[in-house]
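5-formyltetrahydrofolate cyclo-ligase structure dump, as promised
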Amino acid sequence: MKKKFLRAKYKELRLGLSKETIEDLSLQIANQLLTLPIWDYQFYHLFLSIAEQKEVDTEPILHILQGKDKNVVLPKTDAPTNELINYLLTDTTVIKTNRWNIPEPQDGIELNANKIDAVFIPLLAFDKSGHRVGYGKGFYDKFLAACKEDVIKVGLSFFEAEKEIEDIYQSDIPLDYCVTPENTYSFKKS
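structure tokens r here:
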């Protein structure tokens, strides 16, 4: 299927989820994440969920990271350049929603993308090859291209993999893993 169709399909499917279902599924995803071999690093990039878009709630993942004493890095969107600016989460970090209702840090200690070890990635859909469909602005593809080559890319999805996304671009960066409430997909080449 093509990205445009998948975006519409999965936005509609997510809108059909209740708040309680989202909480339950998000907790299941967080628990599934604990089985991945990704916890020996220091810097973890985590998006903060857009509630009205019914995204995976990342608060349980944030608690896991803090409980493991990891450095959490939060993105802030730079709309003119379609890039993410990355800030270390500290006790003094101020979070506000932007014009798209994305919760993000206002400022703080900026961290270069090449310092990040693992990235949790929002998405609408993904396929069995690790390709993903986001909102289509390219923020994460630009960001991932700036990360070190071996950064671990983990998608989070309420839904299982599609067979294939037909219109993949050369600039699209595939996932290493995608975690759903029921399954963990690995796309890493051995």
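The domain at 3-35+42-186 is CATH 3.40.50.10420 (Rossmann fold).
lmk if u need the other ones
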